[in-house]
Design goal:
alpha+beta; Nucleoside Triphosphate Pyrophosphohydrolase; four-stranded mixed sheet; three-stranded antiparallel sheet; 2 helices; 16% helix; binds 8-OXO-2'-deoxyguanosine-5'-triphosphate; binds magnesium ion; 8-oxo-GDP phosphatase activity
């Protein structure tokens, strides 16, 4: 059956901020959608999960840190159509967590000052996330 509908993916995204106000970014593996670019850690919301539950689970899986759902605050929501895939990015501040983030899936991590975020290559949807961070 012909269809022009693209898959819509709901993603929980964490802007993780440390005590020095630096932000954690991770490099997406080359084989993934938007691979090779930097991202804010996170992943798809699964059926039956709240966005906060997905965020806590993804940050545990990807970074091996423990985040309490109540330690996260909403930052912004971005809708973006990549053509092959449309995403709804539910973006949250994460300022309280325990453990030191590690690239649990082998992904490079970097702590960066907010004003240097524009020096890194991100997926197109992240333009609006970075704007929201810089105007917060
Ligand atoms: N995590 C994350 N995803 C982003 C960002 N910007 C952006 O366009 N995306 C897109 C890329 C992907 O199409 C989608 C996230 O999917 P994902 O591959 O990270 O999902 P996931 O962690 O659940 O991975 P998997 O279970 O499919 O392996 O959102 C971002 O800053 N962080
Ligand atoms: Mg992910």
């Amino acid at each position: 059956m012909p269809s022009t509908a693209v898959k819509l993916v709901h993603v929980a995204v964490g802007v993780i901020c440390d005590a020095d106000q630096r932000i954690l970014i991770a490099r997406r593996a080359d084989h993934l959608h938007q691979g090779g670019l930097w991202e804010f850690p996170g992943g798809k919301v699964e059926a039956g999960e709240t966005v906060q539950e997905a965020l806590v689970r993804e940050l545990q899986e990807e970074l091996a840190i423990a985040v309490a759902p109540e330690g996260c605050q909403p930052l912004t929501e971005i809708h973006h159509d990549y053509g092959d895939k449309a995403v709804r990015l539910d973006v949250w501040w994460v300022r309280e967590f325990s453990g030191e983030p590690q690239g649990a899936e082998g992904q490079p991590l970097q702590w960066v000052a907010p004003h240097t975020l524009n020096d890194y290559s991100f997926p197109a949807a992240n333009r609006a996330i970075i704007d929201a961070i810089l105007s917060a």
